[in-house]
Fold this protein.
Amino acid sequence: MPGFEVFGAEEKKEIMDVLDTGVLFRYEFGEQRKGIFKVREFEGKFAAYCGAEHGQAVTSGTAALKVAMAALGIGPGDEVITQGFTFVATWEAIFDVGAVPVFTEVDETLNMDPVDLAKKITPKTKLIIPVHMLGAQARIHEILAVANKHGIPVLEDTAQAPGGKLNGKALGSFGACGTFSFDAVKTITTGEGGMIITNDEKLWRDMSEYHDHGHDHAVNPGGRGGEGRSFIGFNYRMMELQGAIGLAQLAKLDDIVARQQKNKAALKEAVAHLPGVTFRTILDEKGDSASFLAFFLPDAEAAGRVNKILAANGAGAIAFGSNTWHFYPKWEHLLAGSTLAKSGWPFNDGKGKRRVVYDADVLPQSAALMARLLVYQVPVKLSEERLRQITEALNKAVNY
């Protein structure tokens, strides 16, 4: 990853189709656009790729989460459970619809622990958002079992795992809906952009209208209906240039995943020589999008020593235990309740009363895993020179 590694003539061709019409807006201008609707086409092909009935393109993976939650009816007074190892966007979107994020532990899949999930359910829980983190599968069947027991919908955050599968079924297609990100460093990219997939036609139509200021999409997509509106919305529309790039990138996704799987296997073979190393639990190796290689050392001290040697030899790994974007105890603005709102919202209720307080130490299982975790991002194009450099660095770390 990411998809920009394979930009080429295909993306240019799709972009020129749009520029030749002069229409960048995804709706209307029927005569001028000469039948070209790139976003509409991208939605249909992406949904079909995932085995879903409907796709809704939006401006980002973050917007995808918010639009999906809006359509699911999530709002103030609700609790939404997600995991403590994810990108900040997951819980930012929860706050942005007025709900309160509740965080679970992760297990050695580096995804939501279904056992801890069951402990976090309350009468206020209205949605569960597992994240297929670092390109591989969450325990989605176990998560759905907990959710179904309580009648709670599941929204899959699949931002980092397009192309991933579990026993042949696309990640993102198990729950009520699944969201994806196409930002600059994702497996396939449109620079910015996101997608929601679902089999629920009403949910899709509500998302379609909400993301376009609530416009009536009686004839959808392509037209905006009779300008009637059933509810308020906002603007999260994807533009035609992004849809064009998405089409070209989607056509390359299977090849991207295959190349990443090959490169991940080579990196894993090199890492396996480290004494005491173990690897992340992957539920379905064939369905792994293989965008990251995650491995554990016996303890935090060993992980630190190894990574110091790797970094000194030009092959440092990501230590997510100290990463400020993805791990709960490092989200200083969340823990401090920092906000631009003078009322203190969303941490305060607007009347001076605190709605929620977060404690950095409430996820000890996750903290223990993160402390000894190292991760390599897997490129689509891995040169022999770069593989040799990483291998030599790992060999120097064997006696850590």
Q: What stands out?
A: The radius of gyration is 22 Å. Residues 14 and 244 are 5 Å apart (CA to CA). The chain has a mean pLDDT of 96. The chain has two domains: 3-253, 254-396.
